[in-house]
UniProtKB/TrEMBL annotation:
InterPro entries: dTDP_Gluc_deHydtase (IPR005888), NAD(P)-bd_dom (IPR016040), NAD(P)-bd_dom_sf (IPR036291)
Domain of life: Eukaryota
Cofactor: NAD(+)
NAD(P)-binding domain segment(s): 58-369
GO BP terms in the entry: nucleotide-sugar metabolic process
Keyword RNA-binding: no
Keywords: Lyase, NAD
Record's protein name: Putative DTDP-glucose 4,6-dehydratase
Taxonomic placement: Eukaryota, Fungi, Fungi incertae sedis, Zoopagomycota, Zoopagomycotina
Keyword Lyase: yes
GO MF annotation, one: dTDP-glucose 4,6-dehydratase activity
Length: 405
């Protein structure tokens, strides 16, 4: 078994039994995955006989939502790669997200923190990492209004540490996973943002993601670190810690609680299924041009209130209830966020030109997501009660009054 579950995340993490690609074990195959995962694995961006030349790939944040889609995909479709996951297992990450592949011969998990320079250097050097897919981040906007220093530390410093180690070590490709939120709000009368649009983040989360991007770009320009940046719309699907609208509403409804709508619910988001994002990142990793940015987008746009209505209707349908009655009962309006961008929208022609296509319609992806949470939502993480309250934001402890006043 190549899955190390160490409690020590101080930096000098102990690695699990060395690279498994050399053990001569049979490659992992999709038949060992759950029914949920099998259809989400998709296809290789490289032809079956094509080889990229990479051997050992580090995926940061691979125990999180999107990162774990990427890990399952890479482990299954690319037996020639040794996949090393580094994740500190924060509240939103779970080893359960990786359970399906933990026996795969080309998989290795290390619990550790990307902000530790010594630890990251050690991993890159000893595991001969030649490419990095960087997902690890603090990702919940609500939390960033409270404990925003955590966002700077993990998202900015963490990325900086990785870039510096990548520079020293001579990494061949570095995919930096960012978000559409770095463009800031996009009013309805403005065109969807192209990759060259000037960044205008408006909340602490998106500001730290934009700052991390600036560092990534600077390391590319100054030192030739082979960076590619991706910026995606809102992602939904199984395995997401239920703090973001889609997964949270589903878990609230499964507990017979109302969906908590921030403000009047008129803010809209574009949604894309996680497997489509993993496909896009596979294509960008293998076919994208160094130094470029690629938007990952969807045309499926829906307000938060419409999303809640849609979910309530689906639940009512499965429970044989009257949807109108259920909507009256299962919606509660709560105070809005400190700031809630009305809308994001990206133009993703560049990605389409690389050969990517969206494959999962929202109507299909959302049914599958609901079914996954029905089966696993209450047992996958620790108690999720706190995540389901209206504004779960982690707050910085109030500054104690003291001698300096
Ligand atoms: N979820 C979305 O809708 C969305 C949309 C666009 C972009 N993104 C970006 O995609 C990436 C992945 O998002 P997600 O939704 O899967 O996030 P997530 O919150 O589900 O997972 C993040 C993972 O990173 C790990 N992590 C955080 N800080 C770390 C550190 N210092 N060291 C090691 N591990 C650390 C966490 O333990 C967790 O497993 C993020 O960079 C995010 O900004 C997400």
């Amino acid at each position: 078994m190549n899955c190390a579950q160490h409690s020590d995340i101080s930096g000098a993490a102990i690695l699990s039994a060395g690279p498994a690609a050399s053990t001569g074990q049979a490659p992992f195959h999709a038949g060992l995955l759950s029914e949920f995962d099998r259809e989400d694995i998709g296809e290789r961006a490289l032809g079956v006989d094509e080889r990229s030349g990479y051997r050992s790939i580090l995926i940061t944040g691979g125990a999180g939502f999107i990162g774990s889609f990427m890990v399952r995909k890479m482990i299954t479709l690319y037996p020639e790669y040794h996949i090393v996951v580094v994740d500190k297992l924060d509240y939103c990450g779970s080893l359960n997200n990786l359970r399906a592949v933990k026996e795969a011969p080309n998989f290795q998990f290390i619990r550790g923190d990307i902000t530790s320079a010594d630890f990251i250097r050690f991993v890159l050097h000893h595991l001969k990492i030649d490419a990095i897919l960087h997902f690890a981040a603090q990702t919940h906007v609500d939390n960033s209004f409270g404990d925003s220093f955590e966002f700077t530390k993990n998202n900015v410093l963490g990325t900086h540490v990785l870039l510096e180690a990548a520079k020293e070590h001579g990494i061949k490709r570095f995919i930096h996973v960012s978000t559409d939120e770095v463009y800031g709000e996009v009013p309805h009368d403005k065109p969807a943002c192209r990759e060259e649009t000037i960044l205008a983040p408006s909340n602490p989360y998106s500001a730290t993601k934009a700052a991390a991007e600036c560092l990534a770009r600077a390391y590319h320009e100054s030192f030739g670190v082979p960076v590619i940046i991706t910026r995606s719309n809102n992602v939904y699907g199984p395995y997401q810690y239920p703090e973001k609208a889609c997964s949270k509403f589903i878990c609230q409804l499964l507990r017979n609680q109302p969906c908590t709508i921030h403000g009047d619910g008129s803010n809209s988001r574009r949604y894309i299924y996680a497997a489509d994002v993993a496909n896009a990142i596979d294509i960008i990793f293998h076919r994208g041009t160094l130094g470029q940015v690629y938007n990952i987008g969807s045309q499926y746009e829906i307000t938060n209130l419409q999303l809640a209505h849609k979910l309530i209707e689906l639940f009512a349908e499965s429970r044989g209830e009257d949807a109108k009655v259920a909507i009256q009962r299962d919606i509660v309006f709560v105070g809005d966020r400190q700031l809630n961008d009305r809308r994001y929208a990206v133009n993703y022609q560049k990605l389409l030109a690389l050969g990517w296509q969206q494959t999962v319609a929202f109507s299909a992806g959302i049914r599958k997501t609901i079914e996954w949470y029905r089966q696993h939502g209450e047992t996958w993480w620790d108690d999720i009660t706190d995540a389901l309250i209206a504004h779960p934001g982690k707050r910085i402890a109030p500054v104690p009054t003291g001698w300096w006043q």
